[in-house]
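User: Structure tokens for this complex, please. No commentary.
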Amino acid sequence: MELYYYIIIPVFIATLVYFLPNRGSRIIAFIMQLALFGMSVYNFVQVKDNGVVTNYLGGWSNGVGIALRADSEASIFIVMTTFLFLITISLGMFKEYIDNTFIFLFVILEALLITTFLSTDLFNIYIVIEISTIAVSILIMYKRDSRSVYDALIYFLSNILGMTFFLFGIAFIYKIFGVLDIYIIAEKMKNINDPLEVILPFGLLMTAACLKCAVLPLFSWLPKAHGTPSAPSIVSAILSGLYVKGGIYLFIRLRSMFQPVIDIDHYFLLIGVITAIVGVILAILQKDIKLILAYHTVSQLGIILVGICAGSIESYYGALYHCINHSIFKALLFIIAGIIIERYKIRNVTEIRGVFRRMPVVSIVAIMAIAGITGTPFFNGSISKYMIQAGLEGNLIKYSIVLVNFGTILSFCKFLSMFFGKDFHRDKGVTLINLIKTLPIFIMGLLCFLLGIMGDALLEVVFNYRISIISYSYLLKSIYFIFTLLLAIALYKYFLSRILKRLKPIEFELTFNHIALSIVVFFVITVIFGLI
Amino acid sequence: MLNGEITSIILFFIGVYGIIARRNMVKSIISIGIMEMAIILFLLSVNFEKGMRAPVSGLTSNISDPLPQALMITAIIIGVAVNAIGLSLFINIYHKYGTTNWTKAAYKRRQGGRK
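Assistant:
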């Protein structure tokens, strides 16, 4: 099957819904989305059996036209994309505030994301990311609340600024190599001996990729975009679950492109550790549900970056697996946060009580997702975090990751406390319609569990990588986890919850000038590290 | 000697200065526009030498590189879209917060959007 179908079909769905504004077209769109998911699974199986698939668009030869390339990593990311869009569309399709323009932009975003995973042409990737920035910023201000317009403007301009750096990097790459295809450039990179020749494009491209991955000095757009008060929860779910993975994937490919000449993994490793720690500290200090989740995205991205740059094959695959896991549980948590906010009309974690009594099914799913993100044994997060930790060298980094994990557990105690307590509003029992409505999120919750217990089998199928989880050390980790959990609960109950009640909400606020300054400073530091 | 590449690098950093130092939202959007123009100039003058002709059919020798020109048409279109959306978001902000200043807008956002 030709690869461009995966880009054309979402565009077709979007146009269909936009021009035929009735419920029937939405149902057709949903069925086509289901078919697209099936196709992407088929594509994955094909790639698995027959190796990498490459299509040259327009019949041009390699290096002249745009090429689409699906290897096993790209195709698993595409399966993930179509699956999450299927879930979010089925949840949001029949809500009142969602009109045709919304679905149009939302499904176009899917096509753009799939293109980022498939395309090998740097300029094509630039165009796609630029358009998706426009689509995302319209989606997050869709309800036109003044705060979300401001957040959209900050998101929009800082990402456009990053992509301007990216385009300048492309210009330098074209000047040096004369081609724009990532894999051809990676081949030609081997002929370059002096890092000084490619240091400028390296700094420019990496700055843009790191902005997309939301690492330490550059992450202040992320909580704004993902946690803005009035953004629809399915948009937040897609942004936090999937969209940032596009940045991670870009980072992985650019890193391997420059690897023969410039290899500064230790620098990115350090940045990843600091990002994870700062992200989790800021998450602990938040009270707004969505902001908590947004800051956790920052810290989990830091952990993924650590896994990619740790230098061992085990953490690398652990990081990729964590990408998949994170996209599932984080999307799920955002959707659940949306449901809770819709019912309670407040966003403050310390004020919401008794969710379990009111919405038992949703709460069970939420607890599954929390088990995923905290790395509870038998859930998906535990496998990927175990793998990332197993491949790390050096005690300092190892212990800081343990610390980050402890912070995650501590912060989700805050989340868990929502489910208990008394709440006098009661919903009318569990009806069949409600059960059907919660079916998509229930599937995702189940996936959190299944990806955990079948993690080793899945890794072997997806990445051809056999992990050796030593049952003794896994058991040790489980016992250790229970102790950490107890400690975290105690710490939360007697210390943190009292502080939080008095604390004013802390937001890591940077004005746009400071964001721009941090981008430039990051660029300069990256160039300096690349030279020494 | 000031050729296209050096001019464009200077222009790019003028844009960077504008973005860091100016607190006016419109000036920030204009600065991004300047940076984009600088990159377009850079890519067009990458393999250019004096006396080269435009890549039109019929010419065989001394033709300038057609690829950057094709790419830059796309980049110009994207630039127009970006400017349009940036400015329309700015107008929206201005109606709601009544300021063009980044710092004041950030302060008002913290206050919850009161004018």
